[in-house]
UniProtKB/TrEMBL annotation:
Stated name of the protein: Cytochrome bc1 complex cytochrome c subunit
Annotated TM spans: 243-261
Organism: Nesterenkonia rhizosphaerae
Keywords: Cell membrane, Electron transport, Heme, Iron, Membrane, Metal-binding, Repeat, Respiratory chain, Signal, Translocase, Transmembrane, Transmembrane helix, Transport
Pfam families listed in its UniProt record: Cytochrom_C (PF00034), Cytochrome_CBB3 (PF13442)
Reaction(s) the record says it catalyses: a quinol + 2 Fe(III)-[cytochrome c](out) = a quinone + 2 Fe(II)-[cytochrome c](out) + 2 H(+)(out)
Amino acid sequence: MKALSQKRRHPFAFVALLLLGLLVTGGLYAAATTVNQAQASNVHTGYSTEDVEEGQRLFVANCATCHGMNAEGTDAGPSLVGVGAASVDFQVGTGRMPMQMQGPQAQQKPRQFNDEQTGQLAAYVASLGAGPAVPDDEYLDIDQGDPARGGELFRINCAMCHNAAGAGGALTEGKYAPSLHGVEERHIYEAMTTGPQNMPVFNDSNIPPEDKRDIIAFLKTYESQGTPGGFSLGFMGPVAEGLLIWTLGLALLIGSMVWLTSRSS
């Protein structure tokens, strides 16, 4: 027993216990992350074999040049294995893909494929590996959402890039966060789950589907209100409004001084 006690007090015992604790903690975290990803993933459930095959033909004809014949990725484009149907539906459905030219980020433009073709491309990419799915309609129904809570979540997680009014904003190196006005509900949801361009991924562990619906409800409620005060001034808030008032006030003051001095002379 005395020998065992001396071994437990070995100077490297603490280091060994620390490494063991880190190993166990890391393993548990990895297991939990895998479970969450599996719960939020989509394996082409609901897609027919015909959809997958037609999607593959469309992919080879229109996407393989950059993404590779098997979507494994090339120097010109990333791998699409495991990105899920939601990523394809967002990128292709908003016209960002296929890209017209290389640049800091994909530009939104009129889409090249109709809804059926977009769904077929999504089916093929979803068949390559599990990834975020196209959201269910229940999570896109803004009537079930809470705009007030969605506003809080948006200001905490999104406003620093997209502006508190969802008007978008500039980032670094020619990149930008796009305006969220006029964006379809499902594309907003898909952007949160897939993290396109420079946007972080907000999976269901970060922001549950119900919270995503609340954020969408806030954006659509805000969008429906318009600009009852007149000019929106870029939806920049009180800073832009204060600057405009200050500039107009200063111009009016200088103009009045010039007019008064000209009359006295």
